[in-house]
Amino acid sequence: MTITPEQSDWFAATFTMMVDNVEQVVLGKRHVIELAFTTMVSEGHLLLEDYPGTGKTSLARAMSQTVQGISTRIQFTPDLLPGDVTGITVYDQKTGEFEFHSGPIFANVVLADEINRASPKTQSALLEAMEEGNVTVDGVTRSTGVPFLVIATQNPIEQAGTYRLPEAQLDRFMMKASLGYPDLAATIRILEGTADVRHELAPVITPQALVSMSDIARGVFVNPLVYDYIGRLVEATRRARQVRMGVSVRGARALTKTAKTWAVAHGRTFVTPDDVKALADQVLAHRMVLDPEAEFDGVTASAVIGQILLDVVPPSRSDLA
Questions:
Q1: Which of 74, 94, 169, 310 has the most other CB atoms within 10 Å of its CB?
Q2: Domains along the chain?
Q3: Is the dihedral of CA 61, 160, 130, 36 positive or negative?
Q4: Is the pTM of this model over 0.85?
Q5: Higher pLDDT, 167 or 133
């Protein structure tokens, strides 16, 4: 299905309104907000690696209010159990039947705070929900609903008492980003009280309309040469000297889906190589496992992606015409 210019215009205008709405409470972080909504519309999940107090909870709450959805927050701790995330079945003595008590995973935006503090068993409770949008408890499968976005956070400086996320789980996150501290102007606005970071936002669209945006994004045209470019980028991550494990096919699909959303969010009905370049670091870097010697030498996954973008030649405009 090819999208029409009218659909593209409506999508771009709505996307801008959503970002503007959230930026009222998450100040000076427009690019990260755009990445978060791109992930949401692309039906993926977001990993935020950031310091405490940078507005991660505010971002999740503001996004859910913008799409007229429900948000929940799960504080991951070493004693958190899988049932605390998914919900449990409880025997009701009055009725003589088992009754399911849903967990906080049943929401439109789920903030999984400090996800690496929970045990791998509890972390894995998220995997089915993130991949399939379902939760299975006692043999019964239940849908989490749509839209469904997990925003997981982890602290980059405090590693004591944490469990590193396994590669299989990192691969489930469509993007990895960082909010960072607000700039001086935004900080002053917060201190003066002119920016109420706890302000209740008016909804911009309904959950059903967001699903329609996802349908439109899937219809964005991708030239075969752009598919080839994405494939060559992914292949390059597997051949890079500093990389022990490159990007999976799931990563290539994630880059394609997000590039489609990014393109139509900026008013185009087709994907350009620049759309791919704009998202390559956030989509691909966290999926790679670097060689230990390279890590010891200070090499980062983002630096490897940057070099790959320089080495792999994108298709020219004349080729795409």
A1: 74
A2: 1-213 (3.40.50.300), 220-315 (1.10.8.80)
A3: positive
A4: yes
A5: 133
